[in-house]
Design goal:
Immunoglobulin-like, Beta-Lactamase, Clathrin_mu, transport, 2 domains, nine-stranded mixed sheet, Clathrin adaptor, mu subunit, five-stranded antiparallel sheet, 40% strand, alpha+beta
Length: 439
Amino acid sequence: MVASAIFILDLKGKVLISRNYRGDIPIRKIEKFMPLVLAAEEEEQTLSPILSTEDGVNFLYVKHNNLYLLAMTKKNSNAVTILLFLHKLIEVFKEYFKVLEEESIRDNFVIIYELLDEMMDFGYPQTTESKILQEYITQESHQMEVQVRPPIAVTNAVSWRSEGIKYRKNEVFLDVIESVNLLVNSNGNVLRSEILGAIKMKCFLSGMPELRLGLNDKVMFETAGKTTSSKSKAIEMEDVKFHQCVRLSRFENNRTISFIPPDGEFELMSYRLSTQVKPLIWTEVIVQTHSGSRIEYQIKAKAQFKRRSTANNVTITVPVPEDADTPKFKCSMGSASYAPEKSAIVWTIKQFQGGKEFILRAHFGLPSVKNEDENQKKPPISVKFEIPYFTTSGIQVRYLKVVEKSGYQAFPWVRYITQNGDYHLRMPESVKTAKLSTI
């Protein structure tokens, strides 16, 4: 991993800030970047985050708002590592400036140069934790009268946590959040389903504690030669990604998640399960058109999860023709409204208990008469929801232990949440012969 130089450009390719770390590539080579981008756009190619010149100069870049953040290298470097560094650079800048855009770059030249010097040395990434950087690089750090001493964490093995942290009450909060991605065709068949999960933590712990987290991980049970009970099941996680604080060697050896956590809020890990997911909130729509003058909808929503669980803030968005007007609604639960900017019915149910089923009937006038194109692509139905104390995958936190040399007692809190991700159901064809009851 070697980056020769880092640049921040505007959308026209003008250099706002640059930092040359190695001096092995002439800075003027940056002038070749925008022509490469424009040439790729003209050829209607899918833009790659890596562009190369004929003389072997590589540009690795990330586009954010109205900026390009770019690394230039001539070595056979690890492209993924460089791109990850650019994303970390964006995170750190957003921590400092809240919004990262051209104006915030122009207003903060001094602090940006100091961050670039601390986060990379001779082309190699160094400290990238914003909380540690904020301890000794502040908005006033350009005043050279006082020599600021970096915290021990910068040279310590645990670079993401400072020493000497103290709390009157030691607590750790753990949230298991799962998002369900689902695509159902117009015939009711599930085309795609997956679960994207994340374990997020808030740690308010004194000293340098070590935490150990145990999950109902299938591989862990198999490694230990244990069997699961009939009530609990083991899950097999894919694409597992950890925060840098996790000791990967221990996880690879015995599937133990052991770590010294950063202070405050962070994401411990993320995972994916490509499993067949039963639609949690099933939606059926019957569309009835009447000779181009009016259109009726019957929308049925059913909660296909256990009765002891409840989905909060459910929003079902059903597309309607762009020229629809004079809406009328009748629903058995919640409230319905017409959103003309979306050309859609928005049905909101504040609390949707498991096993329940509700119906909404809607009627619209169609003032303009036009031939309906059966092949015209219709937007899908989208569903938003959040179900607390529930996980689709069945993941469970078996234990969360806090060990610190002072021996204090810590209070762990665990919460489960399932929510929608890309949750869509395609619209059925309209029915022109059946008759629905009018409102």
